[in-house]
Amino acid sequence: MSAVEARTYVLAIDLGTSGPKVALVSNRGEVVAKATGSVDLILHDGGGAEQDPHAWWSAIVEAVRQTVADSPSMEIAAVSVTTQWSGTVAVDAGGAPIGNAIIWMDSRGARYLKDLTAPGRVKIQGFDPRRARRWVTYTGGAPSGAGKDPIAHILYLRNERPDVYDAAATFLEPKDYINLRLTDRTVASYDSIALHWLTDNRDPDSVDYDDVLLSYAELDREQLPALCHATDVIGGLTASVAEELGLPTGTPVVAGTPDVHSAGIGAGTVRDYAAHLYIGTSSWLSCHVPYKKTDLVHSIASLPAAVPGRWLVANEQETAGKAIDWLAAILYPDRDIDGSVYEELNTVAASVPPGSGGVIFTPWLYGERTPVEDANLRAGFFNQSLDTGRGEMIRSGFEGVAYNTRWLLETVERFTKRRLDPIAMVGGGARSALWAQIHADVLRRTIIRREDPIWVNVRGAGMLGHAALGHVEWNEIDEMAPIAATHEPNPNNRHVYDGLYDAFRRIHKANRGIYRRLNG
Description:
Blueprint lengths: L8 E7 L4 E7 L4 E6 L5 E3 L3 E4 L1 H17 L6 E8 L5 E3 L9 E2 L11 H4 L11 H10 L11 H11 L1 H6 L2 E3 L1 H10 L3 E3 L9 E2 L7 E2 L1 H7 L8 E3 L4 E4 L2 H7 L6 E7 H8 L8 E5 L3 E4 L1 E2 L4 E2 L4 E5 L6 E4 L6 H11 L7 H12 L9 E3 L17 E3 L7 H27 L6 E4 L6 H11 L3 E4 L5 H14 L13 E5 L6 H26 L1
Helix pairs in contact: 9-14, 10-12, 11-12, 12-13, 12-15
């Protein structure tokens, strides 16, 4: 350890869609004194997805107090937050939330994007070419047609909830709202603000709003937070919050980073082109790169990273672990969906040969973002017969997510012009050795499962905090990520999975028009 020999600790807070995880993270990468909480997801007709910011805060406070109580002898050097990305919290002039937060799953603002992206008569892939050029040149991307970016959330509020829009002093990402609660500072980091598509990201260490892009959205700078780097200390805990959490007043708060970025750090993939595959509610396959680049066709871009001087390849598969949750709820309607249910699913799936007897599952339960952007796609099972049993249906669920990941891998490798191998697998899905092996076989890549994979974002937020404080060097972090297991591709399964993956792609091509007619 080059900078600090003695152990120091950062209190890391990870607010996911299901609720918060809180832990102390040492400057040697150890995750200790863990606590969790839960938060309800509120779904509305028409693509609405919300959560209560007060419920976020209550669950965080409880988890932090438990963590602090379990570690009375450990001095906390700072607080560092990571959260779900691409959400919107409208706050008033006093910093109080106005109604529910709109989260990353919400697509209700899609209908209002046309006036933003294509006001002229000439259009290329749905965009005014002049605006598309400005967006790509400055931000690295453009507003998603699915309507799930914060800019679409804000347009939804302006058009359908003018009471909220007019009362709002500032629109914040979830991470930046939690930091506001901690410090009374209204600030966003260069990485968290990126999906608003309103900033000049050409220098990842000096990001600012672009007046022309703001004019496209008819927004003023005053409606959005001030900007800083993810590694900046934005302030200290206020006296009232410190008392509520059981921490010293003034404890430094690092700006922190969204979940995609913290996973890249916590997975031990800080160096360029070191890839991580996160499987949680959603999924992504990402790596750091030394350049800004955009693939509009496949909705992939490199955006400012939490790591100084770097960009992160940003993409998202809408439903991954959530597809298995959905399957579990159908198969076990009278049971709480807990660890024992997932163990049963794994056991049953492992009893079926690779390929699930030719059954193919498409995991598009909530549309898709990448490698195709299509809110109309839906999930389905294909090629069942009278011989198809429960085991084939379950295993095909695991395999279907892997097929979609292979599609994403091919797209990301064309983007980076690099073969990404090995790939670190993290998130809740990485607890399954079976699923890791399926991914190794389908992707034809070595899969490395990290220890404590559901705590990877907490670990990433903690290590970001240590790097910000000078307790660790960025180039030391990858070697501190412990390996639980390594899964090599089984060559005996290649022929089966190559054929089924080809069929998976053909299913999409043959049915996308049907999905559009049914759900458009």
